[in-house]
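Second attempt. The first submission of N-acetyltransferase domain-containing protein had a stray character pasted in from the spreadsheet, which I only caught after the job came back as garbage. Lesson logged: always re-copy from the clean sequence file. Corrected sequence (457 aa) follows.
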Amino acid sequence: MRCLTLAGELAGRGWSCRLACAAGTRAAARALENWPGEVIELPPGRETDPAALLEMPAPHWLVVDHYGLDAAYERALAAWAGRILVIDDLADRPHECDLLLDQTVGRQASDYDGRVGSATLALAGPRFALLRPGFTGADPGRELGRILVSLGGTDPADATGLALDALAKAGLGLPVDVVLGGAAPHLDSVKDRAARLVPPARVLTDVADMAGVMAACGLAVGAAGTSALERARMALPTVTVVIADNQRQVAAGLERAGAARLVALDADAIAEALADLARDDEARRRMARKACALCDGNGAARLADLMAVELRPATLADGEDLLAWRNDPLTRENSLETGQVARDGHFAWLAGVLADPQRLILVGERGEGKVGMVRFDTMGEREWRVSISVAPEARGRGLGRVLLAFAVGRIERLRGPGAMVAEIRESNAASQSIFTACGFRQSDAADGVLYFRRPPP
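This time the job returned cleanly.
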């Protein structure tokens, strides 16, 4: 679902998206039935073979979301793909990519230190969570009403049946909605159990409006998979269980955030937690508020914004924009030289920079607009001083980090790896955050200026 959500966001912006997946995925994943783009099922046995993709037209972006793939696979495709985005939530293997997304609650970019190169920008935590459209939030103070059971579309281990047993033990007497895929192997058994609850539970298959179902419920039993953050966004208090090893970190993060109660996959444990939350209105509402605060549902749009950034060498035609950014009041306040720059002097300086092979200015664009620039000045053999400026209208969107990360990768491809240094005012917390996210670390300080250094990769 993560890839489909991102592909849907990109397609809505005019991108052409192809989905490459294992043989048989189309039949097993009902969500693909309404996908308007191209779906390519890879030949059996070649799902993890990079050569299977090399036979296709090269993409501008390759998105890799597969627990069995790592840096070796990505490295084999680096020259073919324009850029690579990896989606992961395990932080247990190396990657070689331009962007890495891990939307796990509590995840830190530093969890990937030593697993990604210094030119990789790691986006960690639920700010970039890829939630399907429609998950726009719900009232965290709503009444208990109905109970939702949602433990995966196919649920091969029949955790749904176990949850229904727990509800029977709890004896809450509340209406229950059970959500399963139409191809779930235990669907008939689940329907039998649901019919025996008091009152009988509704079994909903292949639900199109999952957000609406969640909004109508006041308590849930759910797994810590992709839908966990959807429930969080819909302010739905949840008794969470782990039904796959890759869910453990997600479940632990949700519980630490107070957004869910984690229990063992055991009918008695689930029944006890449900009963506790059902009778404690304030505990449910507190959990709902904390869950809703984890993400705002705009993660796919934020990620698409970053993926749309392109870099090109500056020209004299960029002079007016560069001057306006340099003379912006906030830019001047954070610059080492705070005076206003005169137009004639600026254009003379720019002409000199553009003619100097030891200096490089890269301008970032997104769509038809410019969003900022990164400048490299040679200091010595394979060593550059780096500075960055984000257009005032583009601030606050995370674009500074992606500008710098893409620019660092660009100059290393052009001129080989090298050390980089940035000089940042002590008061300029935003720039410090940008450079830290891109692998720079403070090495010195003097007279209100912090010196950040990034060693050669």
